[in-house]
Amino acid sequence: MAPTGLSLDLTSLAARYRGGDLTVIAVIAEVERRIAGAADDSVWISRVSPDSLTARASALDRLAAGDPGAMARLPLFGV
Predict the structure, then answer these.
(1) Less Cβ crowding at N or C end of the chain, within 10 Å?
(2) Distance, CA of 59 to CA of 70 (rounded, Å)
(3) Contact 30, 4 (CB under 8 A)
(4) Which of 52, 50, 63, 74 is nearest to 23 (CA)?
(5) Are 3 and 29 in contact (CB under 8 A)?
(6) Distance between CA atoms of 64 and 31, rounded to whole angstroms?
(7) DSSP 3-state of 57
(8) Which of the two residues, 38 and 55, has the higher pLDDT score?
(9) CB-based contacts of 58: which residues, under 8 Å, 6+ apart?
(10) Are the beta carbons of 22 and 57 closer than 8 angstroms?
């Protein structure tokens, strides 16, 4: 699970993904937690379902595990 103080800036996420100490699944869980904590703040025009997010995050985590060059080819990996 991602720590509640997880920084979501792109540089920090990329470094932690490359370092192997953060997964896309953990980021999605933390983002969902933060959204739920904000209640209905009317920020989102629409949202992808949690199940769809989890499926895509799992696919990205599997890709990264099986293909060391995936993150370099996908500059917005995990964002």
Answers:
(1) N
(2) 12
(3) yes
(4) 63
(5) no
(6) 20
(7) helix
(8) 55
(9) 24, 25
(10) no
Rounded CA gap, 60 and 49, in Å? 17
Beta-carbon-side half-sphere exposure of residue 12 (alpha carbons within 13 Å): 6
How far does the chain reach from its first CA to its final CA, in angstroms?
17
Dihedral, CA of residue 50, residue 79, residue 3 and residue 21, to nearest 10: 120
Q: Residue 27 burial by CB count (10 A; 0-12/13-18/19+): exposed, middle or buried? A: buried
List the structure tokens of 13.
């996420």
Backbone angles phi, psi at 3, to 5 degrees: -70, 150
- C-alpha distances (whole Å) from 64 to each of 5, 42, 45, 54, 74 are 24, 34, 30, 15, 10
Cβ-Cβ contacts under 8 Å for 78 (sequence gap 6 or more)? 13, 14, 17, 24, 27, 57, 60
> Of 9-13, 39-43, 58-62, which range is least confident?
39-43
